[in-house]
Amino acid sequence: MFEILFLGTAGARYVVAKQLRASAGLLFRNDRDYLLIDPGPGTLVYLAKYKLYPEKIKSLLVSHKHLDHSADLNILVDAITEGGFKKRGKVFLPEEILLEGLLLPYLKEALKELVILSEKNTYHAESFVFHTTRKLLHSAETFGFIFEVDKNKKLGLITDTAYFDGLLEEFKGVSYLIINTVRYQPKEGVLHLSIPDVKLLLMELQPEITVLTHFGMTMLKANPFRVARELSSELNLKVLSAYDGMKLSL
């Protein structure tokens, strides 16, 4: 069974800094394999809260360098490799993270494998298979991701990006969709998706299930649960608002 645990649902600086929502990323489970995505501040703490032990996690995926996605990268690699004494773990990340030294050298050497992400490529992490999209439109190097749930179903993950021509094409055919929805309304110069962008995506893609997450302050003020209900009613689609600790089985 493919299961998603939303360890945290915070996006944007203020929500993360005030911890109005946890900033702990996503944990995918496929049978006995785990893939941790975007270990933001507090990820290690929330793994402990849910009695999930880092040494059981063999793969990490970091979408981009911003701290709400990468702050706990080093402490998790340290935990997985038991302080660097055991060579284990596989980390997927954009080259920009390495170039800026965000992964400490001694931990880089402790990993069993380090994989640099590139556009339109396919990757394997234990039983997980995922594909990258073209580069997204953000202030850091990042990609969208499409995961193989089974032979017929795919899960799309739209990480931090502004809407741009071609974004729809990258996610056509997905059955499930997770969208980082930082803003309620668009704001000029802010490279994040907003609810009008989400509507455009959903009207075209028509996924079976959509989950909104990674909320900024304007989304929290608008009430993400209400927003999801209204989108579901308006578009006749199943749209959910993620909350910290939410589990979703596909």
Overall 3D shape: globular
Low-confidence stretches: none
How much β-strand is present in the residues?
25-35%
The CATH level-2 architecture is identified as 4-Layer Sandwich
- Could you state the oligomeric state of the chains shown? single chain
Helix content: 25-40%
CATH superfamily: Ribonuclease Z/Hydroxyacylglutathione hydrolase-like
**Major β-sheet profile:** 7 strands, mixed
Radius of gyration over all CA atoms, rounded: 17 Å
Number of helices: 10
- Alpha-beta classification: alpha/beta
Number of strands: 14
Strand order of the largest sheet: 6-5-4-3-2-1-14
* Count of spatially separate domains: 1
Mean pLDDT, all residues: 97
Set out the fold topology.
Blueprint: E1 2-6, H1 13-18, E2 26-30, E3 33-37, H2 43-49, E4 59-61, H3 67-70, H4 73-80, E5 90-93, H5 95-99, H6 105-110, E6 113-116, E7 122-125, E8 128-135, E9 143-148, E10 154-158, H7 167-170, E11 176-180, H8 195-205, E12 209-213, H9 217-222, H10 224-235, E13 238-241, E14 246-249
Parallel strand pairs: 3-4, 4-5, 5-6, 10-11, 11-12, 12-13
Antiparallel strand pairs: 1-2, 1-14, 2-3, 7-8, 8-9, 9-10
Protein name: Metallo-beta-lactamase
Pfam families: Lactamase_B_2 (PF12706)
Organism: Caldimicrobium thiodismutans
